[in-house]
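Moderator note: this is an archived Q&A kept for reference. The question asked for a predicted structure of one protein chain; the sequence and the answer are reproduced below.
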Amino acid sequence: MLTGQNRSDETRVALLPAFFHLHVLEECGSTNDVAKQMAAEGAPEGTLIWAKRQTAGRGRRGRAWSSEPGNLACSLILRPGLPPGQAALTSFVAAIAVGEAVSALVPGKVTLKWPNDVLVDGAKISGILLESEAGRAGSVDWLVLGVGINVRHAPEEALYPATALLTAGADVTVEQVLTAYATSFQSWYHRFLSQGFAPVRAAWLNAAQGLGGVVTVRLHDETFTGRLIDMDDDGVLLVDVGGTVRRVTAGDVFFPSGRS
């Protein structure tokens, strides 16, 4: 279903791979909330909700995610048939896909910050939110993968320094960014399902921000500093703190310069 689009927009979004079933909204509160309702009602895998304006977007830990007109806000319904722990690794698949799409557009250095932020020259350009519904027989019924990419605008006040594609040197349309992201995601998602997490982990580590360097990790009840040494097969961040390896399953990561 395409709504509120002109012919040139339809031409661009028609470049999405056949895996995707696109629904376009002029405005909504949260694309993830729309997608979750559709998933619960039986929408097929590949259903993609794109809102031209999102008024109540959110990121990790319930943080607000600003999405002005001209930025990309979309949510994708997936049904991978995987146990919850493995299904959660899809967020890394999405980070790699966004990173590839952004890398093809901007001249700056694109890196990935655990767990699923995409940075350009150290500033955040994208956020990812994964939500799921438990199914029977130990697997998830569905995943909703929310992706926000700053195309024309970046928030002035945020937990981390932020940037946009336009600021980073890419004067592109949201439709172009959506096509680039969707094409890369389809490739990586099918690779993940057929080959497991190993190639995803290798690609993520290859693009990881600060690997081998000093990081500060902020948990809900403590903050510590150490050396970022690895990410394991479960997507857990490994930080060496004075010779003791700390396993980080949830938290915020900061680098010495104060940039994300």
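Archived answer notes: Residues 17 and 183 are 6 Å apart (CA to CA).
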